[in-house]
Amino acid sequence: MSDDHDHHDDNGAHELRVSKIQDGTVIDHVRGGQALNVLAILGIDGTEGEEVSVGMNVPSNRFARKDIVKVEGRELSQDEVDVLSLIAPDATINIVRDYEVVEKHRVERPEYVEGVLSCPNADCITTGDEPVTSRFEVLSDGVRCAYCETIVREEIASLIDAA
Question: What DSSP designation does 19 have?
Fold first, then answer.
């Protein structure tokens, strides 16, 4: 009995079928379960009518499972890519124009990120009324506030400054 709905590659593995986007960004090789945090970083919650495709926990050659985020009509800024690198250090950014990938690069973790994360330390100078922009040193396993030296290793996405 044939099954016309399953697609297999030469190895008999299932193939993920997601439609191509015309113009925008494909964020691939995101660690499984992080796609919603990627959308949070990009400020996408669906209320602006963005056309977004998300694949979560799909099979991957590089990892056991990966997430994929496709955003139609938007190319990421360097600041967005820098923050993205904190939660998706192995991600690949593909810029698509007229259905073709015109740029493809892996994210690179910056040494510092400024003004994109909020320090979780209530006593930090950046959380008070002082006009001080947050600055975090990017560590191999987290971030450290440049002012109070608080280190964050978990839930970095929850510190993203939505301002």
Answer: P
Tell me how far apart the alpha carbons of residues 37 and 90 are, in angstroms, rounded to a whole number: 15
Burial status of residue 8 (CB atoms within 10 A of its CB: 0-12, 13-18, 19 or more): exposed
- Which tokens go with 126? 């950046």
Residue bearing tokens 């001080």: 132
Element (H, E) at 138: strand 135-139
32 touches 65 (CB < 8 A): yes
pLDDT tens digits for 66-120? 999 999 999 988 888 888 888 888 899 999 999 999 999 899 989 999 988 899 9
Which element (helix H / strand E) includes 40? helix 35-41
Q: Tokens 């997601």 identify what position?
A: 18
